[in-house]
Amino acid sequence: MEEDLELSCPYCGAYNDVSEVGEFEIVNCVECGDETELVDGELIPLDEE
């Protein structure tokens, strides 16, 4: 069963399709291109360390 999952970017608020993304994978925002990470069903800013 396919599930469409869209989460908003923490930087610009644009919705990104993360239905194919696994936990702790990097997601590049479709609008601003910033890197976010999928954690606990939320997109969080990727910590640059």
Lateral strand order in the biggest sheet: 3-4-5
Q: How far apart are the termini? A: 37 Å
Number of domains: 1
Averaged pLDDT: 90
Low-confidence parts: none
Tell me which oligomeric state these chains represent: single chain
- Secondary-structure element sequence? EEEEE
Number of helices: 0
Strand content: 35-45%
Total number of strands: 5
Q: Determine Rg (CA atoms, Å).
A: 10 Å
**Sheet/helix structural class:** mainly beta
User: What fraction, in percent, of the residue positions are helical?
Assistant: under 10%
How would you describe the shape?
A: globular
Q: Biggest β-sheet, characterized?
A: 3 strands, antiparallel
Give a verbal description of the structure.
The chain has strands at 6-8, 15-17, 26-28, 35-39, 42-45. It is mainly beta and 49 residues long. The protein has one domain (6-45). A three-stranded antiparallel β-sheet has the order 3-4-5, with no helix packed on it. A two-stranded antiparallel ribbon has the order 1-2. β4 (35-39) and β5 (42-45) form a beta hairpin. It is globular. The chain starts with 5 loop residues before the first strand and ends with a strand.
